[in-house]
Amino acid sequence: MLGFVGGLAFIVVAGVAGQVVGRSARVPSIIVLLLLGILVGPVTGWLDPDAVLGSRLYPLVSMAVGLLLFEESLKLDLTRLRGGARRPVLALVTVGALITALTATLAAHWLLGLPIGRAGVIGAILIVSGPTVVGPLLALIRPKQPLESVLAFEGIFIDPIGATAALAVTNMVLHGEPVRLGVTGLTGVGVGLVGAVVFVLVVRWRRIDPATHVAIALAVALAVYAVAEALHDEAGLFATTALGVAVANQTVVRIDAVHEFGSHIGLVLIGALFIVLAARVDLHALARYALPTLALVAVLVLVIRPLAAAAATARSVLDRNERAMVAAMAPRGIVAASTASVFALRFEDAGTPFPQLVPVVFGVVLATAVVYGVAGPLVARRLGVRTSEPVRLDDDGVPVVVTELAAALDGREPPPSSRPSPPGTRHP
Predict the structure, then answer these.
(1) Which of 77, 200, 243, 371 has the most CB atoms around it within 10 Å of its CB?
(2) DSSP code of 384?
């Protein structure tokens, strides 16, 4: 059995290796990470996160999810939404998210036999998607504009929104006290906003080298998480989310360098987090809930997503076939699985285990990645919404069109990984 140091090193190495393999094979890294984590965990027994991390497991996983939400929230720059894509994207992450949460809650209640509160936790978690799983699928599908921008921006914006909603529902179910939920949320948001002010003041100090901005952002994110948790239990995730949104939308300092957070720290963080989470999956629970999970996936794919997409894209710039393509694209990704795992730990810590949460959400993540990965290109070809030009991805797995658009709106040069290639260069 691996000790703490050896286990920690193994987790990091396996996490990075899984993402490298995923990117090289041009498949969503989350699939590789989940399968690798299950292999080294419950299948072979090489890694037991509970034995390696012990009592540190919950605080470390919770802090890692907090950093992940900070990284995702940095993408929630509202100035990016301009032009024809603005309306359908905003509708998808508001009206569409609400429809998804409510209908997925009812589906989980009926199919899994869960109390409505716990079904609501699953429904809220299933709002999220994410660029790390949408990006590679867009590379396969190669949709035309403005459809590509709508799908890409929805994937970027929906993660922090869905995670915050899921956090609120989880707190309500665990504590059943609206006042406590309000205090928790306000504490976290307040600390996050103070942290954003501190970050801006530090970065604006001209003696600070831009090369250190990522390290400063990491330090501030860790600090606001710790302070918020010290002031009020479970306020840390609210704090890091508020910090990311505030930093992304302030206009005092440029944060070009901070967007490298996801390329470097995020790479290690996501990989390690998913190896730990997947290694804790109970294979018997996966098998036990396989049929209701597949039924839930069928409802999500055939009923819930088309309903949400129809409501959100009505009377938008998208034509009928493009709207149908939006209805055929809603994979779940890293934030869904990670929030499910950390909330499951919270239920365990509160003495009221939620055994269905992790196997059901992990099953939905894997199944939707496979379904949309296989069906997406076929549906796009059938609808005639594909372009002849391949969709290029930047180093974060986000379509280059999004990176270049954000750079143009910010008045800066696009990063080297997203700049157009020289004439004659072929893209894979």
Answers:
(1) 243
(2) T
pLDDT category, 111, cuts 50, 70, 90? very high
Find out whether 99 and 179 touch, Cβ atoms under 8 Å.
no
Domain of 29 in residue numbering reads as: 4-414
Structure tokens at 422: 């020289």
* Burial class of residue 295 in the structure, from the number of CB atoms within 10 Å of its CB (0-12 exposed, 13-18 middle, 19+ buried): middle
**Residue 425 maps to a domain:** no
Q: Please answer whether residues 158 and 69 qualify as being in contact, where contact means their C-beta atoms are separated by less than 8 angstroms.
A: no
Do residues 404 and 414 make contact, with C-beta atoms less than 8 angstroms apart? Answer: yes
Beta bridge partners of 386: 143
- Note whether residue 424 is domain-resident: no
DSSP string for 291-351: HHHHHHHHHIIIIIHHHHHHHHHTTSS--HHHHHHHHT-----HHHHHHHHHHHHHHHHTT
Number of domains in the chain: 1
Coil vs helix vs strand at 388: coil
Model pLDDT, residue 334: 79
Cβ pair 132, 30 in contact under 8 A: yes
Listing DSSP states for 233-259 in one string gives: TT-HHHHHHHHHHHHHH--SS--TGGG
Assess if residue 422 is contained within a domain: no
Asked if the model's pLDDT at residue 395 lies above 70, the reply is no
Three-state SS at 217: helix
End-to-end CA distance of the chain: 42
Which one, of 310, 329, 307, 328, lies nearest residue 318 by Cα? 310
Pairwise CA distance, residues 301 & 315, whole Å: 22
**389, part of any domain:** yes
Q: How much is the average pLDDT of 74-79?
A: 76
HEC profile for 102-167? HHHHHHHHHHHCCCHHHHHHHHHHCCCCCHHHHHHHHHHHCECCCHHHHHHHHHHHHHHHHHHHHH
The 3-state DSSP class for residue 188 equals helix
Name the DSSP letter for residue 425: P
d(CA 336, CA 333): 6
Contact at 8 Å (CB) between 15 and 271? Answer: yes
Residues across the chain: 428
pLDDT at 153 over 80: yes
